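*** Backbone structure tokens ***
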Amino acid sequence: MSVNNRILICVLLLPMLFVNGCSINPATGRPDLVMMSESAEIAKGKELHEKILKSMPIYQDEALAKYVNDIGQKVAKNSHRPDIDYFFTIIDAPDINAFALPGGYIYINRGLLAYLDSEAQLAAVLAHEVGHITARHVIRQDTAKKGASALTITSVLTTGSGIVGDVTNMWGDAAIKGYGRDMELEADGFGAEYLVNSGYDPHAMVETIGVLKDHEKFSRYRAKTEGKKIKSYHGVFSTHPRNDLRLKEVIAKAGTLPDNQINLTNKAQYREHTEGLVFGINYNAKVKERPLEKGRYLHKKLGFSFLYPEGWEVHNMRQAIIAKPKDKSAEISLMVARVKSKQSPSSYLRSVLPDQKLTHSENFKQFGLIGHTAIAYKGDSKVGNRVAVIFQGSRAYLLAGTVMEAQEGIDYDKLFLKSIRSFRPERSQAKPRKSKTIHYVKANDKTTMEGLAKHIKLGVYTEQHLRLINGLYPRKKISAGEWIKIVK
């Protein structure tokens, strides 16, 4: 599209410019009708980045952080927007996810790094996220949703990582859940182009899809077996299969490397920088200290806190923690018990309330914890109580909201749900457990996944986890002489 044609389109759309801005998208070359200038986009990204740093633990490995940043900067320099500053951050979370916020801020979870096999695959993930920024997907999506309305700021849960981030609905939802198939595919195309420009084989994008599709397949099996809801990374693999024709087409358009250019994979460098990477839960992960807000009860010994309604008082009894108003018209109780490892929150709640009928049942995740909530009716009673159970390690926290004498104008169920949804883990005073870490060993002709799984303890699915981090899922064989990731 010529410059004159782009200007003409903006002129034809002139009536809308009083509420929106018309600019040429640097990646697509097409006009964008957006409500935010580039400077405002960058400022918003900086504001949200500062909030993320306060609410999410950052992985403490300077060498690995520099490595990821160097690869990211290399890809960004070869993108459609090399003139803005980019910031690459490793979130200390075991979940598989990566996301981008406006203005050059990109995040990759520690958990995702464990499943990649080379620098080229890491570059593919980062290039995909750079593609979202260069194409201004989050800005374009928000404009399409809100039109000329003012931007609204509401905090959401970044459920992809299982940790609360104080980010906005428009940024958080898009970053974690994705931008829709067309935008994701567009980011794949740009990402593949940036890989070529950076000297990497663009098919590293397809390799990454294969690795992570295997993880998604296993996650679906596990979720079905355990009665949980699957959460998928929005990026390069969630929107299309390995053999997706459109994906192959956009990668083909990215071009191929010249014969005299090195086809970078850099597996050895990737091994070097991920040796000792924490796998699974990092018991030493730290979030910047945050003061407790008014009305939040903290139990230091057990390491949890929750909000109670304004004006209520909390009493730590021998059998339960009780919060109630001065007129004792209602109460929220919290009890603690042990839970069996294979039991789901839903089945647990039903097992402790066998004589009650549960309605409006709902599974939920918050702050890295899983839970289940419902309204419980006892016998023929027409009045139900809000109940919930939240699992934290081997402990089950049972919360119940009861109304003894309803006061006019109070939505009690809303009060109870607010307390339930505010329950979060806090740093325990107990001695931290030792985290598991990834190490590389060379296989010999007798090395098998079945044999390794007998000596490595990763729970019920040890062999599956080992196969997944080594790209051998579900039944591929180990070749003698190849490097294998183990966990210890």
Summary: The chain has a mean pLDDT of 81. Residues 204-226 form the longest helix (23 residues). The radius of gyration is 25 Å.
